[in-house]
Amino acid sequence: MNALVINDLVKRYDNGFEALKGCNLTVEAGDFFALLGPNGAGKSTAIGIISSLVRPTSGRVSVFGHDVVQEPEAAKRMLGLVPQEINFNQFEPILEILINVGGYNGIARNEARDRAEHYLNQLSLWDKRRASARELSGGMKRRLMIARALIHHPGLLILDEPTAGVDIEIRRSMWDFLQKMNADNGTTIILTTHYLEEAEALCRNVAIIDQGSIVEQGQVASLLSRSMVETFVLDLDAAPESPPLLDNITINSLSDNRLEVEVPRGTNLNQLFAALERQSIQVMSMRNKTNRLEEFFLRLVKSQ
Amino acid sequence: MSDTNDNSHLAVNLVAFRTIVVREVMRFVRIWVQTITPPAINALLYMLIFGGLIGSRIEEMGGHPYMDFIVPGLIMMAVIINSYSNVSSSFFSNKFQRNIEELLIAPISNFTILAGFVVGGVCRGLCVGVVVAVVSLFFTKLVPEHYFITIAVTILTAIMFSLGGLINGIFARSFDDISIVPNFVLTPLTYLGGIFYSIEFLSPFWQTVSLANPVMYMINGFRFGILGSSDIDIRVAFGVIIAFIIVLGFIALRLLNRGVGIKH
Fold this sequence. Notes:
A: alpha/beta; 6-stranded mixed β-sheet; 4-stranded antiparallel β-sheet; 29% strand; B: 11 helices; elongated
């Protein structure tokens, strides 16, 4: 069963700007899926159409087999949305926000309260239940939006940059929570993010959207295997007098004690260390300059 | 997987409707100092100045003591302005903070959203109307001549102006936009709708012009319910109010269905 199917989706705004140009995408039920793309690529427009906040110009979108235009209410029942921007009543206590959203989804008040308690506890917000939303920190607001999106137990959860501006500790706890939702409840999760290490760590499948079209889609592992080179940054014990001579390895830069090299995929790194050793260059530490998915993403978007 | 699948469409919409109404009522009750007190003080001042000081020098209006004549108009004015402004400000505030999206992505019909906001506005209008009526008891002993007509006209008027407020909220792009209509359209129409005078006192030309003012039908309909007489035939008053409700309801629902002001 597919959680989401998008066919030939086009969105042209009133000012003539075409945000989506025949977008096609399929996400299987139970998947943890990343939708990546540069700013203005069409990610938020696509999410807006899936969640009925934006009207499509043409094309079809279905959520668990329900067309979002023909059967909007059936499609919406299956969908939870964590939007990019904060969009709750800033003056309402957060427990009330969750109970009300439960009510909008047809959940009786007592049941909605129990669910709100469950999710607020899970997301470490229960102590703040009587606080108004404007009193929360940025990270708490993000977690509140996740709790709100889950209150009606949707089969498909869409998160539009859920960890933007969130510190690393909270980000990791949100990752754990989402992974648990996906593994334990089978909730299909679609994530857009600018932190590509987040997508690489969490998602099994990925699609890359650019200029309104899906330009790449597949398993994260399979896309990464197509990455031709990796960039490493080496910290040296001392700055060499001249750039070292290295076969099949490109030197991107050399400054002070830092050497940046581009290594073709499959190269045995021992050859790199041996060549440096021969030239009396000692490597003290080494790291990837960017994560592998980021490397792949940048190359793909540049080539478009 | 969603567990609301088995719930009937109607049951989901009923729960959502009740949730919106309760939320709307709690909103104006929570800020009662801003929503309930000012209209009560306004009405009190009108009754003191126009009814007490000036009215004591006017013998009768429309066959009734002047204070008795103006009280139904003052109650109706409070109902009109409060039901209108409750919905326009609440709907716009939902748009402004973008929490309207909570409703737009919920599995409910636009009619449920419309009905929830309108009933919230009706509750505020009725609540303020009752408070003003209680204040008026310090000045006059009014007992409705026709209870059903009094209640029916009040509720229908509140529905009509709540719908008007919703349309205003849908189109509004700034807080200024939700104050323009009450200040420059609603208040003049209300004052010229016969709160303080009977249209019998106007020249034939201005009597005809007054008939184009929809608020006059509501004030006179309500006055008929309270006093048993008015400038307008009660059947005509009901006809006009119901016609406006149908037209405004149709427009408001169409705007919501088309996503005007709320969807791209």
